[in-house]
Amino acid sequence: MKIRFDQKELVEWATQVLKKTSMPESDAKTTATILVKADLRGIETHGLARLPIYVERIKKGGINPKPNFKILKETSATSLIDADSAMGQVAGQFAMSKAIEKANQTSVGISSVRNGNHFGIVAHYLEMALNKNMFGIATTNTSPLLAPFGGRKAILGTNPIAFGFPGGQFHPIILDMASSVTSRGRIKIAQLNNEKIPLTWAVDERGIPTDDPNEALKGALLPFGAHKGYGLAVIGDILSSVLSGAGYLIHTGELYKEPEKPQNLGFFMMAVKLEAFIDIDEFNERITDFIKTIKESPKAEGTKEIFMPGEIEYIRESENIKEGTPLGENVVKELKELGNSVGIEFNLTPKN
Question: Which ranges form a coiled coil (predicted)?
Fold first, then answer.
């Protein structure tokens, strides 16, 4: 059963919790807002369920709550940024802001980041570009979670890669996907809820598919589409980590097992002005027709509606803003424990 809460109250509570770790209020609110946005969109794996491990990592030194961002190398269109082990969401927002700043000047802006941490849903950073009449591309590497095609040991990250475009009269088109069948966070949620997982999600330590989330967390995630997902994971790692000077493959800190160790993840963020190719009004007209043509195409038997990438998440967000942000019972329990530990009681009133 999901318990629903007011989104603004959740953001405010999480902001106060992060402030207790010495994080500046603006950075705390940025992080809290992105976490709650994930829950609003039904991406609970990257929502407030992550807050307890973030706080633990700050306390033990894995995340720097007061980072000093440094521009190590810069051109008219690019920036190489040292994030100083900042909270991932704070570093991600800074990096995309720099990319947008460059794109405003040269039509294309790219930020490459080292010394980063887990930064949540990639869609948030793409939307920053979309709101400026740009399209965006972003990727990050993660600590080793994914077995390569034909392997049994977690050596690659799930390395999400994302693309975002304005949608004209429709919702923006945002493809935000990991290279694995699912995320480790989703398996963690199944573990919290004592649920089994599909056999296609992960292998145990011997490389055998398992439906037990406990065994899956000891083993490795599987790439989607076999060799295709594996290939995307490789490219995502090169773009985000090899290029930036961040840790790659096994040379990264593990989010849960090593809370005292900075992850040293890399990010790659690109923003491109639409007007470099096409008039904005013409683009909006064409993308509207493009989406409409797809959505009005013949449906398979039993299908009520054809959705564009990211559309379902936008619909969920609209519904949940009205009905309340849904959190699992075990997530609420962990948040209450976290609140008690830092002196910010989780006493929000459920909406259901």
Answer: none
**Residue 77 · residue 46 · CB < 8 Å:** no
pLDDT 10s digits, 285-313: 999 999 999 999 999 999 999 999 999 99
pLDDT digits (tens, 9 = 90+) for 229-249: 999 999 999 999 999 999 999
- In a shared domain, residues 194 and 93: no
Q: Which domain holds residue 150?
A: 66-179+224-296
If asked whether residues 90 and 100 sit together in one domain, one would say yes
Number of structural domains (the chain) is: 3
Which of 193, 222, 251 finishes a domain? Answer: 222
